[in-house]
Amino acid sequence: MFLDILLFILGIVLIIAGANYLTEGASVLARRFGVSPLVVGLTIVAFGTSSPELVVSLVSALRGNSDIAIGNVVGSNIFNVLVIGGITALVTPITITRSTIRREMPLMLLACLVLSVMALDRVFSGIGEVENVLSRSEGIILLGFFLIFLTYTFAIAKDKPSDPHVTSEPVKHYPLWLLIIFIIGGLASLIAGGELFVRSASSIARNLGMSEGFIGLTIVAAGTSLPELATSIAAALKKEPEIAVGNIVGSNIFNVFFILGTTATVTPIHIGGVSTLDFTMMSFAALLLYVFAVLFGQRVIKRMEGAVLVLCFVLYTVYLISQI
């Protein structure tokens, strides 16, 4: 058991380090070859922050641990909104741009609803014997949504090159050989970390008598969301909370459309330990964030509303623990 915990922590460290080095190497290399900061920000950086969830979900599904795969994404989306959004608002009230309220937040809510309809076959078919499965065809549909989202985002961002979600930092100077090591080493670290992470999480769940769904919704989801948590808190401390919101909303859209789309296309995801309540909580969290954003027309998530978000997560987690 102690060894599993150590391997679990090591897996998290390898995943986060791998994501950072892969993103850094690929971003600098792309900029060196003349790729614009806009393209780098919307593709490589966005992919890099979501790569922990992608690796864990894909490895879990391929190993037959489907509940960890789906629980990771559903739990990450809940964690992103309620914990990261809540803590960020507690640090400093979040002013949200009109474009985020009009475009990205509704799309995040749509992603949650589409995933719920696709995953909960038993509920929406009305047939009790039907198994909840995210099929390959549904994975392809999710990837289609992702391509539409990416195309639309590029079109909008080109019209507004000052979009706060896109970084325009100066190019860092690394030797070419070091960039290659960053990319290859980062990718290897992600794969090795994902394998350790999933294997140890499954073992911990069995030893403690917990379901893989519970582990995926809580510990795994929190672990893979650490890059978003660090980025959002840093943005809040720098008095740039709008970047934190863009990070949260964009990550949730990526999680559903890209990560589950890719994973389900590679191998169908059989859903057993993630319940209707969990999918409902994911959609409710997205809706609550949107309501707080448009409340009174001020486009501000205040500290009190941040406290409500965190409290909702605490109550949800207490309920999950009570069901063990």
TrEMBL record:
<feature type="transmembrane region" description="Helical">
    <location>
        <begin position="108"/>
        <end position="127"/>
    </location>
</feature>
<feature type="transmembrane region" description="Helical">
    <location>
        <begin position="249"/>
        <end position="271"/>
    </location>
</feature>
<protein>
    <submittedName>
        <fullName>K+-dependent Na+/Ca+ exchanger family protein</fullName>
    </submittedName>
</protein>
<keyword id="KW-1133">Transmembrane helix</keyword>
<keyword id="KW-0472">Membrane</keyword>
<feature type="transmembrane region" description="Helical">
    <location>
        <begin position="6"/>
        <end position="23"/>
    </location>
</feature>
<feature type="transmembrane region" description="Helical">
    <location>
        <begin position="78"/>
        <end position="96"/>
    </location>
</feature>
<dbReference type="GO" id="GO:0005886">
    <property type="term" value="C:plasma membrane"/>
</dbReference>
<dbReference type="GO" id="GO:0005262">
    <property type="term" value="F:calcium channel activity"/>
</dbReference>
<feature type="transmembrane region" description="Helical">
    <location>
        <begin position="277"/>
        <end position="297"/>
    </location>
</feature>
<dbReference type="InterPro" id="IPR004481">
    <property type="entry name" value="K/Na/Ca-exchanger"/>
</dbReference>
<feature type="transmembrane region" description="Helical">
    <location>
        <begin position="35"/>
        <end position="58"/>
    </location>
</feature>
<keyword id="KW-0812">Transmembrane</keyword>
<dbReference type="GO" id="GO:0008273">
    <property type="term" value="F:calcium, potassium:sodium antiporter activity"/>
</dbReference>
<feature type="domain" description="Sodium/calcium exchanger membrane region">
    <location>
        <begin position="5"/>
        <end position="154"/>
    </location>
</feature>
<feature type="domain" description="Sodium/calcium exchanger membrane region">
    <location>
        <begin position="179"/>
        <end position="321"/>
    </location>
</feature>
<dbReference type="GO" id="GO:0006874">
    <property type="term" value="P:intracellular calcium ion homeostasis"/>
</dbReference>
<dbReference type="Pfam" id="PF01699">
    <property type="entry name" value="Na_Ca_ex"/>
</dbReference>
<dbReference type="InterPro" id="IPR044880">
    <property type="entry name" value="NCX_ion-bd_dom_sf"/>
</dbReference>
<feature type="transmembrane region" description="Helical">
    <location>
        <begin position="304"/>
        <end position="322"/>
    </location>
</feature>
<dbReference type="InterPro" id="IPR004837">
    <property type="entry name" value="NaCa_Exmemb"/>
</dbReference>
<feature type="transmembrane region" description="Helical">
    <location>
        <begin position="176"/>
        <end position="194"/>
    </location>
</feature>
<feature type="transmembrane region" description="Helical">
    <location>
        <begin position="139"/>
        <end position="156"/>
    </location>
</feature>
